[in-house]
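Q: I'm writing up a methods section and want to include an example of the input and output format. Could you take the sequence below and give the corresponding predicted C-alpha cells, formatted cleanly so I can copy it straight into the document?
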Amino acid sequence: MRIKILLSALAMAAILTCIGVNSEFAQAVENQPANSVIVYYFHGNFRCTNCYNMEKWTKELMETCFKDQIGSGALSFKIFNTDEKENQHFLNDYKLYTKSVVLSLVKDGKEVRYDNLAKVWDCLRSKQKFQEYVKAEIDKYLKEI
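A: Here is the clean output for your methods example:
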C-alpha cells in the first residue's frame, strides 16, 4: 500500500514537471491561504531607476496601506527576478515582456485570475498616482476573496 502511494506521488511529480508546472510556483500558491491575493513584482537583472521605484513604491504601499491584510494572510507581496532560471516560467505564466506588477487572485487554493498592471508605466512620474492606481487595483481584488 505504501509503495502504491509513493509511486503515485512520484508519477504526479513527473507529470507536473512534464507539463511545465514549476514546483516553486505551485508551492507559492499552495502556501497561501485558500482565498487570498498575491501581489508580484517581476524584474530582470538590468534595472533602471523606474524599475527600482516600481518595487520600492509597491513595497511601501503594501507596508502602509495593507498591514492588516498581510498580517491575516489575505494579501502577500512577492518579488521575483525573471532572469533567474527557476523564475523564467513566470514570463509565460503571466505573458510578461518587461518589469511588471501582477495581481493574482487565489480561491480555494487555485489561481483563478490575474492582471498585469501595465498602467504602472504611465504612473512612474508620480509616486502618488502610482500608489493610488495600484491600491485601487488591489482593493478590487481583495473584495473578491
